[in-house]
Amino acid sequence: MQTNKAQRENWGTRFGFLMAATGSAVGLGNIWRFPYITGENGGSAFIIIYLLCIIAIGLSIMIAEFAVGRRTSLSAVGAYKSQNENWTFAGALGVLSAFFIMGFYPVVGGWSLAYVFKSATGLLAAPEAISSAFDAFAGATIEPLIWTIIYMVINVIIVAKGISGGIEKASKVLMPALFALLVIVIIKGINLPGASEGLAYLFKPDWSQVTGGTVLAALGQSFFTLSLGMGCMITYGSYLGKQERIPADATSVVAMDTMVAIMAGLAIFPALFAFGMEPTAGPGLVFVVVPAIFAHMGNVGPLISITFFAALTVAALTSSMSLLEVAVSYLIDEKKMNRKTATYLSAGIMTVMCILSSLSMGSLSGIKLFGVNFFDFFDILTDKIFLAIGGMLLTIFVGWFMRKEDLKNEITNNGTLPFGLFGVWYNIVKYVIPVVIAVVAIAGIAAIEQKSLMLFGLLVIVLLGVFSRKL
Fold first, then answer.
1. How many structural domains compose the chain?
2. Which of 23, 109, 386, 416 has its CA 20 to 30 A from that of 32?
3. Which stretches within 360-403 are classed as H helix?
4. 372: domain CATH number?
5. What predicted TM-score, i.e. pTM, was given to this entire model?
C-alpha cells in the first residue's frame, strides 16, 4: 500500500482541484432540475431551505468524503477496505453507481453536444416543430449514437491524460467557460420585456407553498447535487496534498455548485416568462422549451442557443469525467492496471451501456427491465436507490467505524489548521445525517412505481456485501 501511495498522482494546484471538484458537482441536474424544483416549491423560500440543508448536510458529507479519500490515498473501494474490510461493499457500490450513471449520462451529454451544432444549422427556424424534432432525434438509431460516442471519446481523452495533465487541465478551462457562457445567456434573458416575472418565480418567497414535501425536496436536492455517495469526492480527495485545507475546499466547492444552480435558473426562467411559456422539468425543459425561447429572440437566438448548449455540454462533461475517473481509479488501485488501459476498459463497458440506453428511446423501446427501458433503468437505480444508500453508508462508516482522532487529524492537518466546528461536524455526521438520508432514501424508494426494480437494487447491494472481499 505504501508503494501505491508514493506513486499516486496529485492535483497540481488548489485552483485546479477546486475547478475539478466543482465540475464534478455541477451537472445536468443543476441546469434542468434545480430551477424547476425551486419555482415549484415557493421560489426563494425553497432556496433558503435548500441553503440550510446544503450547509448542514451537503457540506458535512463532502468534508467527510474528502477526509476519507485523502487519509487513505485510495479510490472508493480501497478507501473503505483499508479501514475496514467488512465495508468494502460500500466503496464497490460507489464504483457500480458510476458505471450505471455513465450508462445513460453520456447519452444526454451527446444530445447537448448535438444541439450546439443544431442551433447553428436551422433548429430554431421552425419553433412549432422543435418538440417533434427532439423526439425524432432522441428516438433515432444512428445520429444520437454518433454524438454519444463523440462525447465519450472526449471523456476518454481527458481522463487518459491523468489527474494534473488531463482532468485538472481541462477543468481549469471548462469551469470558467461554464460561468462565462451562463453569464452571457443571463444578461440577454433578464433584459427581455417581462423577464421580471421569471425573477419573481425564482426569488420571491412564497411560504404558502412550503410543506413537508418542500423540505424533503430541499434535502434531496442538497444531497444529490454535489456528486455525493458515488465515490467521486472520495476519489478526488485521494489526490489531495496534505497541505490542503479540507473544510475550506469543501466550502468553496459547495458555494460554486450552488451559484451555478442559481445561475441556471437566471439563464432560463426570465426568458421563459418573457415569452409566456410554461415551466417544465427534465429534458423537456432544456431540449424543447429552451430552444423555443431562443427561437423567439430573432437573429441573436441561434447564437444564444449555441452558448447555452455549450454551457450544458461543459456541465455534463465535468461531471461525467469524474464518474469515469471513479471506475478508472478503482482499476488502477485494486487491479493494478495502467491508466490508459483502465480508461479504455471502463469507457468501453460504459459505451455498450450507453448504446442500450440510446436505442431504448427508439428501436429498443419495446424491451423493458422491471417495467422501464434501459435509460430509465440506469437512471432510477442510481438516483433513487444507490446514491441515497451510498451516502448513508458513508456517514455511518465515518461516524461509527473510523476513529474520531484520525478524522480530526486529517481535517485539521494534524492539528496545524484550526477547525473549531469539528465537534459539531462530527456529531452531525454521526447522529443526524444518517437519519436524514434514511428519510430521503425511504421517500425516494417509496416513490418508485416499479417495486420490482426497487427490490432488484436492494438485492444488488446485499450481494455486494456478500462478495465484496473479492473486489
1. 1
2. 386
3. 374-380, 387-401
4. 1.20.1740.10
5. 0.92
